Structures are given as structure tokens and as C-alpha cells.
Amino acid sequence: MPRRTSAAPLSRAGVLAAATAIADATGLGEVTMRRVAADLGVEAMSLYHYVSGKDDLLDGLVEAVMAEITREAAPNGVERAGEDWRIDVRERCLAARRVMIRHPWAPALLSSRTTVPLAVYLYYEGLLADMINGGFTYSLGHRALHALGSMALGFDRGVFSPAPAGGLDDAAAEAEFAELAAMLPQLSAMAASEFHDNADPTLDWCDSQTEFEFTLDLLLDGLQRAHEAAAPRVPRGRRR
Amino acid sequence: MPRRTSAAPLSRAGVLAAATAIADATGLGEVTMRRVAADLGVEAMSLYHYVSGKDDLLDGLVEAVMAEITREAAPNGVERAGEDWRIDVRERCLAARRVMIRHPWAPALLSSRTTVPLAVYLYYEGLLADMINGGFTYSLGHRALHALGSMALGFDRGVFSPAPAGGLDDAAAEAEFAELAAMLPQLSAMAASEFHDNADPTLDWCDSQTEFEFTLDLLLDGLQRAHEAAAPRVPRGRRR
DNA sequence: ACCTGAACACCGTTCAAGT
DNA sequence: ACCTGAACACCGTTCAAGT
Q1: Degrees, nearest 5: CA angle A181-A187-A188
Q2: Interatomic CA distance for residues B130 and B86, integer angstroms
Q3: Given this structure, which CATH class describes domain B1-51?
Q4: Is the C-beta of residue A147 closer than 7 Å to nucleic acid chain C?
Q5: B92-108 core/surface letters (b: 16 or more CB in 10 A; e: else)
Q6: Is the CB of B146 less than 8 angstroms away from the CB of A156?
Q7: Which strand C bases fall within 7 angstroms of a protein CB?
Q8: Can you give the residue ranges of every domain in chain A?
Q9: Does the nearest atom of strand C lie within 7 Å of A34's Cβ?
Q10: Nearest nucleotide by C1' from A57 CA?
Q11: Which option is the CATH number for B62-230: 2.40.128.20, 3.40.1190.20, 1.10.357.10, 1.10.510.10?
């Protein structure tokens, strides 16, 4: 039991920083009131002075992530020029994605929150403002936020992932894998085809940056089309 | 403690049915080994004869939901004709959505699973087969599965939802709400505008069926365009 | 004001024992 | 074979008590 070495007083920010460090290092499942407290050299109950409970701690983690996205999108504290809604929205989504890649636990945390923290609304406010400035109606802006879905926050929340349950270490597992591939002929053929085309080794042939950008541009294309169909004359900003 | 009334022997299907009933009635959080067992008039440890643990029970719930989607998409046990990939894919997504609406806990469960159950792969296999039959390359099929994301399983996994944390019961909460609206001018204006246009009362003005279908058609439009750009001559099936 | 120890009400899961 | 009671190792959280 390491006593607290530094006399630095506890604070909400300190508690959240400790929790973030644990999540980054060992995953969200290890983020426990007792564990966070132990890392701070303190008992679990002390945390309740800075955080109203476990739920508030998790909301705090979300706020920290959203703040990091804001810094990522405006590196010098300045917002983008804002001449083209499409570039602005795209850059916001890509900035969010860079942060999500740094914190792989964040998408699951975001998805699991039952109540939406204010910081998330502030982020959506910025996205919507980009589009309204670009001449979107509120109706189309509303549809756009839904259409972007989790892409707006920088992740692809499909349940689809290339490796099925269980590893393929021994021969038994390999036989099981072959049987499974027989049940999934198209998915197997797709995996084989994509492997072959791809210089990149097995890791991350799925959910790569190019997949993300393909989907994002597909959505932005569609929104741009819907926008121009409703208002063929672009009010301000330049065309692509 | 109600003893087990019927002498019906326990079974995996029975355990899953009890768990599904609990989730439907009171939410996923109440699905507990002890609670499921109690509803079956049995002790928690008895469940381990039919389910290898809590994780296996949750995988079982996912399998039950996927089976329900399959039944929903092929009501009489027959698959669709398959003349147009777009109609086939669309109908599969809408069938999945009808099931998700019946089991509001399912999207969160699907998203939280760290390992993907076989039933989910079988579902994706069907979706991919629709597109390959429609002349898609494996590369475009792969991109399409990613692009559809959670829409493929019938839900819109954005974190966006209209009501911020906390109710607006008393005057204090209402003042807080006004302050919050001032921080979110565009979102507030959007909400007001959409409310005004919508005959439908407050409930579900967001995440409605029309929003879902708008996003789905936006994605299908984009995929169709990408498909036709790569292979301008449609191999089989009719054009829209 | 800030931190603590003991306790409470829950979890999932094990194990040896019953029938 | 199927079910059980007691126990274990964890949770988040409360409360009265320390300083």
C-alpha cells in the first residue's frame, strides 16, 4: 500500500486524470472507485468529496475526452475559418477520431452513457453551427446529426469486426475456424480478397482510416446533395 | 420465495426466455444471475448447468434477438426473391429495426458485447450475400458493411438525444434549462423549429422512423452510386 | 474541511455436499 | 444428473467517527 507520496491536494481534475490513466493502461473495466483511490494513495471514500459517485466519475471521463477533442480541433485555441461547412464538419469528425484512437475505451464509454453530458451537447452545437452557417435548414441539420451518428464522435459503432470469438491457437481451434468459414462463405471470401489486396498485415485491415473516411465522405456527399437540392444557390462559402 | 410451480425442466431456452422477459419488463440492468434464477423458482447456481456464466447468458440474449430478426425478415420461413440488392438490404435493416423497437435494451447489449456472437456474423453474411448477388465487389461490400454501421442492425447509435440530463419539474430545474439553452443556441433553435413543424407530441420527435429511413436511404444512395460508378452496366436485377 | 474504518447490500462464481 | 447452502472475492455506497 504506497502512501501518497506527494502532498498535492486531491481535486476533481486529479481524480479524473488518475481514472483516465487507468483506462488508458488497463481498460475501462479496471476503473473502480477503490482502484482510482488506491492509485492516488487514498481510500475509496475520499473520492466522494470530488465526485458525487461512480456515475459522476464516468461523466467526468466523457467531459475530459470531449475537451481533448476541442483542443485537437482548434490546436492554437482558434477555430477554423468556416468558409465551407463540409470542410469544417469533416475536420471536426477527423479530430474526434484522432482522440478516440488515443483512448480506445472512449467509444464504449460514450455508447454506454444513459444520460448525455453537457460537453457532448456542446460538441454537437458546434457541428450544427457549421452546417447552419453553411445554409442548412434546421430540418436538414437535424437529419444530418442523425445520419452522422457515431461518426460525428469519431468512431464506427458497427458490431462488425473481422475476428470471431475465440483464438486459433491449436489444431482444434483451427478446425473449428474452418467449419465456421464454411458457414460464412461470403464473409470468408471477402476477408480473403481484402487480405490479398492489402499490403498491410492482418492487424487493422478492418476499421482502418480509409474505411472511416470512405463512410464519412459517403455521408457528406449525401448531405451536400440533399442541401443543394433544397437550396441550389449556395448562400455563402465556396463550392467544392 | 415462490417455489417453482410448474415441474417443467429447466433448459437453456427457458433460461434465455426468462432473461429476455426481465429485460423487456425492467431493463438490462435487472438481468442478474440471481434474479433470473429467482424468476424460475431456483437458486442462482442452477443456471450454470445451462449457461457457462453471465457472459454466455448475454451472448444467448443476442442470439435470441438475432433469431427474431431472421424470423421477422422471412415471415413464412422463405427468403425474399432477391431481384434487387437495394430492396433486400433495405428490408433486412427495417426488419432489424422492428425487432430493436420491441427490445429497447438490445442496441446497448449489442454495442457492449466485446466478442461477436456467431448469430451476428450469420446476419452480416446474409447482408453481404445480398450485395454480392447484386454485383458488388468484395471491396465495396466490405465498405458497405462499415458504412451501414449500426443501421445494419436496425438502430441509430449516435449519442445524440433531445433531452439533456435532469428533468424539468420544479422552477429551479426550469431556470437551469433556460441557462443551458442559452449555451446551445443552435440546438435550441433546431428543437424549437422541429417541434413547431411536427404534429407529433414531444415524445420521439427524435430518432423517429422517418429519421431512420432518411439515413438508411442516404447510405443506400451513396452505395448505389459507388457501385454504378465501378460497374455502370448492372449485371442483374432492375434499376430503380 | 478532509479523510478513514467498519459495515451494508449487492454482484458473479467456486466448491463440497446433498438427493 | 441436477440442485443447493455456504463461502469467497469483488463491487458502490452509507454512516459515524476521527483529525
Answers
A1: 45
A2: 8
A3: mainly alpha
A4: no
A5: bbbbbbebbeebebbbb
A6: yes
A7: 2-6, 10-16
A8: 1-51, 62-230
A9: no
A10: D12
A11: 1.10.357.10
Q: Are A22 and A31 in contact (CB under 8 A)?
A: yes
Q: With a 7 Å cutoff on the CB, does B33 touch strand C?
A: yes
User: Rounded to two decimals, what is the model's pTM?
Assistant: 0.88
A120 vs A61: CA distance, rounded Å: 12
Question: Across the interface, do B190 and A222 touch by the CB < 8 Å criterion?
Answer: no
d(CA B94, CA B205): 19
Split at pLDDT 50, 70, 90, the class of B80 is low
Residue A237: count of CB within 10 angstroms of its CB: 17
Nearest C-alpha of chain B: how many angstroms from A155? 10
State the nucleotide closest to A10 in CA–C1' terms. C2
Q: Nearest Cβ partner of B158 from A152, A206, A211?
A: A152
Is 80 exceeded by the pLDDT of residue B34? yes
Distances (CA, A) of B179 to B151, B183, B187, B193: 34, 7, 13, 19
Q: Which nucleotides of D are covered by protein (CB under 7 A)?
A: 2-6, 10-16
Residue B159, C-beta contacts closer than 8 angstroms, at least 6 positions apart: A110, A111, A113, A116, A120, A150, A153
Q: Using an 8 Å CB-CB cutoff, list chain B residues near A223.
A: 218
Nearest to B64 by CA among B99, B93, B98: B99
Q: Which range, of A62-66, B84-88, B177-181, averages the lowest pLDDT? A: B177-181
pLDDT at A208: 82
Per-block mean pLDDT, blocks of 10 residues, chain A (240 long): 52 96 96 96 96 97 96 80 90 97 95 91 96 96 95 86 52 73 94 73 62 96 94 53
Is the Cβ pair B122, A183 closer than 8 Å? yes
B41: nearest nucleotide, CA–C1' criterion: D3
Question: What's the DSSP call for residue B75?
Answer: T
Helix (H) or strand (E) holding B158: none
Distance A52 CA to C7 C1' (A): 20
C-alpha cell at A231: 437550396
